Amino acid sequence: MSQTELPPTKNISSSPAAGTSDFVSELSHADDLYGKLWTLANNLWWSWHPECDAIFRDVDPIRWRQLGHNPVALLREMTPERLADRAGELVLHSRINYAYRRLQEYLNSSQTWASTNAGVLGAKPVAYFSAEFGIHESIPIYSGGLGVLAGDHIKSASGLGVPLVGVGLYYSQGYFRQYLDEDGFQGEDYLETKIENLPIQAALDSDGQPLTVAIDTRDGQLLAKVWLMHVGRVRLYLLDCNVDGNKPEDRELTSRLYGGDERTRIRQELVLGVGGVKALAALGIDPGVYHLNEGHSAFGSLQVVKQLMDNDGMTFEDAVQLSARATCFTTHTPVPAGHDRFPPALVEEHLGPLRDSLGISQKQLLALGRVDPDNDNESFCMTVIGFKMSRCANAVSSLHGVVSRRMWQSMWPDRAENEVPIGHITNGVHVASWLAVQMQTLYDKHFHTDWKHRLQEPDAWQAIHDVDPGELWETHNSLKHNLVSFVRRRFSRQCRRRGESDSVVEAARHILDPRILTIGFGRRFATYKRANLLFSDIDRIAELLGNSDRPVQLIYAGKAHPKDEPGKKFIQEIANLRHDPRFAGRVAFVEDYDINVCRHLIQGVDVWLNNPRRPLEASGTSGQKVVLNGGLNCSILDGWWGEAFNGSNGFAIGNGRSHVSDEITDQRDGEALYKTLEEQVIPCFYTRDSDGLPKFWIKRMMNSISTLAWRFSSHRMVADYTAKSYVWAAGGVTCEMRYR
């Protein structure tokens, strides 16, 4: 369904009262309101504008929550007449009209940051490829940090006016829904998403027909239809293999994110890369820049080469050079398991027909995915082909850049490590998506009127130091109360689902205390993230939590990959602490971590805990979201925090060094974590002035916001990509000298 295409409404002439002008006028007005709400619902711009979110919520608060904050599903249950009645009761007419006008002004504006700073992209747009996009909890095509980063990236591209289209896969079952059984062990459910409840429409080819692309493999064609979503000014195209003509197993190919075996994975990545490039060509989109967000889409570079050879008569070598110049590649992980690798036979099965059309040998193709082109025993790595088929490559934090250059130096054996051509652009977060309404109101009151248009500028955030400390503290505490209420609802629901006693369910409704220091931890439960580090000395942490004068409470959330048994054990260990009297009411594990749970956590915690084994956290963005809402980070000096911490804008665990022995590193970091909590975090929080305010804590909150919010916004990130990568790749740099 497009932005302007509406569901069928009641035929006026069929009504018994159709002859009266009053009825016609009333129904026309109802249709007008209904149509405007459908327009809003069908562009995900609404998801980062709280005034739009509030309209949908107010229409029917109960169903809004039950439907997972999905405006399309909500409107499908309503008629124009019923909506008109609700609008009349709640005086929604002016709010709907105002939101609708704002959307139209936004979409039609030609004066943007990019129109001044990246004009060349207007004729040569960016094609941004990612295996997942986390835009809103009602669009379940993401699993975690990579997807949420991609969602924030395209939102900021929209806000800055960067000409960009997104390309991904449509997962009908998304990532799994998590539940814990009576033993605290993670279980997984896969639920089919009703596509009619999504703001999505069939993408149309040049003849106005729904677009399907075909990808040849050695064992037959793979077909994928193409869907379109609108994310502000950005068009997001999603490929879906559930189409007639595919084998039954291939119809399920894109049903689950990160599911199946390596054959499923390579086929998904073939569809994303090769199918995505084919889809753009069929849509008449001629990108000037291809941005590969991680290696999953790197096969697409070969399709770009084929198009250059077919259209311009180039040789393979010349087409590779031209394609690589226009390609930007971002690597996201220093963890070896995070880099997809495939055996040669599997590569030949799926890339063989494309290889034939390129006129290259199997050895030449495999060499593109091997660090050592002559090593026949080396598997084909998607990260390696991403590097080789691009001329602009980056890591996602300063430290990750150092690690990546060391990790991949063997690809450039004639260069010193510091000369390896991998730079870094540190990740950021989309401010409007993660900023609590209460904090936005505070900023609107005290910041310059144009602060929302200057998110990536340091000066825009300095006014936080002029805010009354009591006002900032009260705003934070209101968010903390919201978090505690949310956790109580979710925790009691979890107990009820497991069939636990009424007394246990009732106790769950009263866990946590909004007056005491609250530490949050929410992320993927990969073992290197060490979710259980805080419990390495169980008696010591029990004493901290149970201190009668300065108590502490913990909220955990996160999923382990279905095949990650150690990660599941970490979850079980933490979740089952609720049965220990020392931790009862002080530790809560919230099931099914998603964007909604994350939003509540990062907006309400006092402290965000991050303790990965350095240097395995490439960047991390959850702590950046906390900054916006006044929470403080307590983190290992890894990823983004390694370049963010200045001594007064949060807390550091350890000194930024690691031992060659992981066991010793874990012991040292565990001790450092306890000392940081005991000697810095807890005393700072509970030291109060005569007004009952933790003035030193509030000062750190202000320092955190003023020094970090602008630096780690996705507007700054996308501006960096645009200035340092996109404009260069599109040939729009006015001066680039080379000296000998």
Structure, briefly:
With 740 residues, the protein is an alpha/beta fold. The protein contains 28 helices and 20 strands.
Structure description:
With 740 residues, the protein is of the alpha/beta class. It is built from 28 helices and 20 strands. The strands form 4 sheets. Strands 1, 2, 5, 6, 7, 8, 9, 10, 13 and 14 form a 10-stranded mixed sheet that branches. Strands 17-16-15-18-19-20 form a 6-stranded parallel sheet, with helices on both faces. Strand 16 (552-557), helix 22 and strand 17 form a beta-alpha-beta unit. Helix 1 (21-41) crosses helix 5, helix 1 (21-41) crosses helix 6 and helix 8 (145-160) crosses helix 28 (714-729). The model is unreliable at 1-27 (pLDDT under 50). This is Glycogen phosphorylase. Keywords: Allosteric enzyme, Glycosyltransferase, Transferase. Belongs to the glycogen phosphorylase family.
Span between N and C termini?
A: 57 Å
Strand segment tally = 20
Helix count? 28
Poorly predicted parts:
1-27
Which range does the strand content fall in?
5-15%
Helical proportion, percent range: 40-55%
Q: Structural class from helices and strands? A: alpha/beta
Cα-atom radius of gyration? 26 Å
Largest sheet: 10 strands, mixed
What shape does the CA trace take?
A: globular
**Mean of all residue-level pLDDT scores:** 94
Keyphrases for this structure?
alpha/beta
Sequence-ordered SSE layout with sheet pairings:
Elements: H1 21-41, H2 50-59, H3 61-66, H4 71-76, H5 80-90, H6 93-108, H7 113-117, E1 126-129, H8 145-160, E2 164-169, E3 177-180, E4 186-189, E5 201-202, E6 212-217, E7 220-231, E8 234-240, H9 248-251, H10 262-282, E9 289-293, H11 300-312, H12 316-325, E10 327-330, E11 341-342, H13 344-358, H14 362-367, E12 380-381, H15 382-388, E13 392-395, H16 398-407, E14 423-424, H17 431-434, H18 437-446, H19 469-497, H20 502-508, E15 517-522, H21 538-546, E16 552-557, H22 565-575, E17 587-590, H23 595-604, E18 607-610, H24 622-628, E19 632-636, H25 641-644, E20 651-653, H26 662-686, H27 695-708, H28 714-729
Parallel strand pairs: 1-2, 1-9, 2-8, 9-10, 10-13, 13-14, 15-16, 15-18, 16-17, 18-19, 19-20
Antiparallel strand pairs: 3-4, 5-7, 6-7, 7-8, 11-12
